Task: inverse folding
């Protein structure tokens, strides 16, 4: 375990399957699952499977959204939000990149517009992959195009 890379309490992530090159995420070991702020979330059936269609911000600083993304729902779960309320959220499985590591995570789709971070990376996603230093941030670099925008938030 001591060979695991160190990350801070917030880091820049990439979600390549969703077309997101840079998203500021809070590394939240108090949250079991990961969550992402999405726009225009809707559901449909295709070939007997449940799907979601939604948009995400390609660049969270400029609020430029992606084209609609369609993904198969892997689950729907009751999840307690930061206010202690239970929400029924759709879950998708997607790739995430942090530093030099890429792996698949489960991601709940929700509205996080009132939160400082559009994404939470929960303990299931970081367990066995990283050590988290809660006193440090952006140990795997900052995104140059967002340096000024992110400090204004």
Result:
């Amino acid at each position: 375990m001591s060979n695991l890379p160190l990350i801070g309490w917030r880091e820049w992530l990439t979600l390549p399957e969703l077309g997101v090159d840079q998203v500021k995420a809070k590394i939240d070991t108090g949250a079991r699952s990961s969550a992402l702020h999405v726009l225009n979330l809707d559901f449909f059936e295709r070939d007997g499977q449940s799907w979601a269609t939604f948009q995400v911000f390609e660049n969270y600083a400029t609020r430029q959204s992606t084209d609609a993304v369609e993904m198969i729902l892997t689950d729907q779960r009751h999840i307690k939000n930061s206010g202690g309320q239970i929400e029924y959220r759709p879950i998708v499985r997607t790739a995430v990149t942090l530093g030099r590591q890429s792996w698949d995570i489960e991601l709940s789709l929700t509205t996080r517009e009132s939160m400082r971070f559009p994404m939470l990376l929960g303990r299931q996603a970081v367990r066995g992959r990283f050590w988290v230093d809660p006193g440090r941030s952006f140990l795997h670099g900052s995104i140059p195009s967002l340096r000024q925008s992110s400090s204004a938030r």
Summary: Residues 144-153 have pLDDT under 50 and may be disordered. The CA atoms of residues 34 and 146 lie 22 Å apart.
